[in-house]
Amino acid sequence: MRSAKSAVGTAALVAAAGLVLSGCQDGPAQSSDLPSGNVSMIVPAGPGGGSDVAGRAVAAGLEEAADVTISVENQEGSGGALGFSNFLQYEGDPNYLISAETALIHIPATQEVEFSYQEFTPIFKIGEDSTLILVRSDSELQTCSDFVEKAEDGRVVVGFAGGLDEITFNLFEEASGAEFDYVPFGAGSESTTALMGGHVEVVSANPSEAMGQIESGDVRPLCAAAEERYTYDQISDVPTAKEQGIDVAFAQYRGILAPGGISDEARQFWIDAAKQYVESDAYDEYVESAMLQPLTAFGDDFTSYLDEYNDTVVSTVE
């Protein structure tokens, strides 16, 4: 989708409470170059959403793995741009982490902002969250092939809430030659409500945010915009778009980054803690509760993933 560029200002500095880190025995080794004093997990979104849940789950997991205390701070505003802009001020400070997802890439690609993912230090990718393409249960559409074919011949109104949905529908357009009419919403719950009310015909939604409506029978998925089918029982029979002849697969990643300019030692401290967390029952419980695909990456591998992800996003929104 062709988005107009807009300026986003940097907010005031955020004061942190003084929490003292304890020594680590089973987690990464401590040194004077590693986190000391307060450690904060910044969530660039309001409470209760996917980014907030991810940030709090990982903060708790890293506390256990690294034997530290991490406070979580929500910095809501401008679709995440406020929190990411504020995070620039912590350059070189290993006492800060930030929960990130597609918005970190999508916002700089569509708006004039001061930050980009390249300004920060990628620690690890928690997992991936591909969307389901949903219709009302009484819709005439049965597959994603039906969806794009109808748009090729006529009008299909799609609802979207954020960069992930926008990019996914853009990829459907590129793969099929179809064109959709777009209606933006502030949150996935709003677009799903509009779908059930008949105000839009198709929406894109993460499995976890739409599962209640799927299980109640109000909506049903046409396909998953994923490389492989989900293995969760409730949606394991939903085919991928590729199975239906549409070459589209795009996931929202969820990840954790540190500020740019931290030492190699501090970077490795957080990577080691993240690897230990991923091996824990707490990680498995979070992934299942959020219905993520547990596709992880650490350090340089996560950086390479973000480089490729950025290329896809930029080429899609141009």
Automatic annotation (TrEMBL):
Residues spanning the signal sequence: 1-22
Domain of life the protein comes from: Bacteria
Annotated CDD domains: PBP2_Bug_TTT
SUPFAM superfamilies: Periplasmic binding protein-like II
Coiled-coil blocks: none
Keywords noted in UniProt: Signal
Family listed: Belongs to the UPF0065 (bug) family.
Family matches, as PANTHER family: BLR4371 PROTEIN, TRICARBOXYLATE-BINDING PROTEIN
Official protein name in the record: Tripartite tricarboxylate transporter substrate binding protein
Lineage: Bacteria, Bacillati, Actinomycetota, Actinomycetes, Micrococcales
